[in-house]
Amino acid sequence: MNPLKPSCFFIAGTDTGIGKTFITSLIALFFTQKGLNVLMQKWAQTGGADDALLVYEKMNKKNVLDDKEFLKIACPYKFSYPASPHLASMLENQKIDIEIIKRSYYEISKKCEILLVEGSGGIMVPLTEDTLFLDLLKELGIPVILVARAGLGTINHTLMTAKILENNNVDIFGIILNNYDNNSEEIIINDNAKIILKFSGVKNIIIMPYSKENQGDLQLFDFFFEGFYPPDFSLHF
Hints:
The protein is α/β, with parallel strands linked by helices. The protein has helices spanning 20-33, 51-59, 62-65, 68-74, 85-91, 98-109, 133-140, 154-167, 186-200, 220-224, and strands at 8-13, 38-42, 44-45, 77-78, 114-118, 144-149, 172-178, 205-208. It has one domain: P-loop containing nucleotide triphosphate hydrolases (Rossmann fold), CATH 3.40.50.300. The strands form two sheets. A six-stranded parallel sheet has the order 2-5-1-6-7-8, sandwiched between helices. A two-stranded parallel sheet has the order 3-4. It is globular. The model is unreliable at 1-6 and 230-237 (pLDDT under 50).
């Protein structure tokens, strides 16, 4: 049984473009099917996409999709330029206010039982010129679900990210090796999981297999979240 029982998870990546939104949507569906009220938030969206909308569409939350005021809380900052939030905001002459992000986090957390916060790239990505995502994770005390590529190159990125989180006293709930591109041999993927398990100190690791239909295997989360649900819904601010 995992000793951590938070009602909020921060979905962090070891890199950009490794399927964080896909994994976030699967976790949202998993907890929804368990009968829990799940909401998702992204503090800063860049590149013109809208990951919060994508997750809510996958969850088929029509009441959320029709609520424009709520969607502003779900994603406080949006930028069209595909870069880290600090640069995208500077190029679009829109200052990111960390206090607004924190207020939106507190507000949305009161409306649900499970809150999933999706990051933008890795934990060391700057939200502003003075604030990294890591800084907010430390301040808010949100445990991390780390999404990493399943194949070649993941050991270094994943272990470094896990070590940074450990050194900053940020809890890692678990690691998901996402085989989003089906581009590595099974022997490499399985060994990656074995080595990361050994050297990271994180005992909660699963491999999300490649899916042509982009559906994912929700049953894997029964193992990943074993002992978590029904959770303690008290948020620790």
